């Protein structure tokens, strides 16, 4: 099947999200749509999928112009989308999720669940997914949940598959597995549109690359192009892909974690008796495959975990047992790993989100009254300083692209007097231009003498930012090593193997 988009235009009021975009995708091809967050990639695909109606242009499948009134029409025409944020019901089984919206019935109108199970097994066996049709989706790892999304699309005989930022929530290992799945789908003859901003992934699987910047196609790129060339096309300027930082000017020990353990309500240990220190003016980066205690560690530092043993001292002040509000007031800044769940209130404006940590303090509140002029001035300053691309400060945060949402979180947290910055997955789902900016802000915070703890599953990010690297495996510290430790050694440590000379 051939997909052609011709002069597609989509407006939201005065904002032109897609400006006469044209591209063609052939069967048996992976066509990468590359661009910054907010460039208009997802909007274009939502037009293709029938979620939005274009204000101009045409969608053509095998030479026939389509007129989609909703996703049902797009699905019927053979288009399937794997969304960045999964469209699954956690309490349903795999088979139940796959048949949802496409239910087959048997005798007396009863649901034919066995047919759905058989379909899951058929697709899973064909592509090597290894997915149990009776498994409850909420119990599955993130990477397997994504396979369920793909099975759901394939079960409806999709010939055009759209992957919208599919690796944003995946570990490096899960990303590699997805790349192989996409290759297998290409070999089956599917036409694949791959939306991403990650340059390594683009170069690894793309047959053709179309680059979009601010809603307009700025050109096609060769998959053999360098990272620097692709980044410059995306952003419209040269981008520094390495972190420029000087040797740290270390102060005294600021954060002391001693014998810290974190349990869940069932008594399962997620962080197992770990101890470490971070000095003022230092970045300690935590590496490891997602799910090895990193989330529970950062949440314990913020007072978000209920079952904690051990000690967390910040400048000699104990944080364990204190409320989150008290921890924030003690000068801890927190960039959470999931900005939509823990970092922002989507229905609040940008301005309101920027004052969340300081909603009781001057200059925003005086004598119990909100000072709108002070909030407006502050928000407009941060919008410009952190290059948040939005119509204005009254825009709901939920309407922003992922990268701009992350900039709002970073702007809020770094605009306070900090004694510690905890940044969990600070650039997850963020484009290359925003990554450069966020890394600069983290390094500037370190250079101002603040201790920084960065948690990331991206090894490139860990190596780029760290002054020292701490590797976690199954909730325990495998070792703490210098930032120039070879990647091969770090990779072994992430499997639980402790190298000679590593600090335990």
From TrEMBL:
Residues 3-239, 255-499 form the ABC transporter domain. It is found in: Cell membrane. Its main location: membrane. Keywords: ATP-binding, Cell membrane, Hydrolase, Membrane, Nucleotide-binding, Repeat, Translocase, Transport. CDD domains: ABC_Carb_Monos_I, ABC_Carb_Monos_II. GO terms for cellular component: plasma membrane. The keyword Cell membrane applies. Its EC number is 3.6.3.17. GO terms for molecular function: ATP binding; ATP hydrolysis activity. It holds the Pfam family ABC_tran. It is a peripheral membrane protein. It comes from the Bacteria. This is Ribose import ATP-binding protein RbsA.
């Amino acid at each position: 099947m051939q997909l052609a988009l011709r002069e597609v235009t989509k407006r939201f009021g005065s904002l032109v999200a897609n400006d006469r975009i044209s591209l063609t995708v052939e069967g048996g091809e992976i066509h990468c749509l590359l661009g910054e967050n907010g460039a208009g990639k997802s909007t274009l695909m939502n037009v293709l999928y029938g979620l939005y109606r274009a204000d101009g242009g045409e969608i053509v499948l095998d030479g026939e112009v389509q007129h989609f009134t909703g996703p049902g029409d797009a699905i019927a025409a053979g288009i399937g989308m794997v969304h960045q944020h999964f469209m699954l019901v956690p309490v349903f089984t795999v088979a139940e999720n796959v048949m949802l919206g496409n239910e087959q019935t048997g005798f007396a109108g009863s649901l034919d669940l066995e047919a759905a199970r058989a379909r899951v097994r058929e697709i899973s066996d064909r592509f090597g997914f290894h997915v149990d049709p009776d498994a409850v989706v909420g119990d599955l790892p993130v990477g397997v949940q994504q396979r369920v999304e793909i099975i759901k699309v394939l079960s409806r005989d999709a010939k055009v598959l759209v992957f919208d930022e599919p690796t944003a929530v995946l570990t490096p290992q899960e990303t590699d597995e997805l790349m192989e799945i996409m290759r297998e789908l290409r070999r089956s003859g599917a036409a694949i549109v791959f939306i991403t901003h990650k340059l390594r992934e683009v170069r690894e699987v793309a047959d053709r690359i179309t680059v979009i910047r601010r809603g307009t196609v700025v050109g096609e790129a060769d998959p053999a192009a360098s990272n620097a060339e692709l980044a410059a096309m995306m952003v419209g300027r040269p981008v520094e892909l390495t972190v420029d930082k000087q040797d740290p000017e270390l102060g005294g020990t600021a954060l002391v974690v001693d014998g810290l353990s974190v349990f869940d309500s069932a008594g399962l240990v997620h962080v197992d008796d770990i101890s470490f220190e971070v000095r003022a003016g230092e970045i300690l980066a935590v590496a490891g495959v997602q799910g090895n205690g990193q989330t529970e560690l950062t949440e314990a530092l913020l007072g978000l975990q209920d079952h904690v043993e051990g000690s967390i001292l910040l400048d000699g002040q104990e944080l364990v047992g204190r409320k989150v509000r008290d921890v924030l007031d003690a000068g801890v800044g927190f960039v959470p790993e999931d900005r939509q769940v823990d970092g922002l209130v989507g229905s609040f404006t940008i301005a309101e989100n920027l004052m969340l940590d300081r909603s009781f303090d001057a200059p925003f509140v005086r004598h119990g009254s909100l000072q709108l002029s002070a909030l407006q001035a502050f928000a407009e300053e941060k919008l410009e300083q952190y290059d948040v691309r939005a119509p204005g400060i009254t825009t709901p945060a939920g309407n922003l692209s992922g990268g701009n949402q992350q900039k709002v979180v970073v702007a809020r947290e770094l605009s306070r007097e900090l004694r510690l910055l905890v940044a969990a997955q600070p650039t997850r789902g963020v484009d290359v231009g925003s990554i450069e900016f966020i890394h600069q802000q983290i390094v500037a915070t370190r250079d101002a003498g603040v201790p920084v703890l960065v948690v990331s599953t991206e090894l490139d990010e860990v190596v780029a930012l760290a002054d020292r690297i701490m590797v976690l495996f199954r909730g325990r510290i495998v070792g703490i090593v210098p930032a120039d430790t070879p990647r091969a050694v770090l990779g072994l440590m992430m499997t639980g193997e402790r190298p000679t000379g590593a600090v335990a």
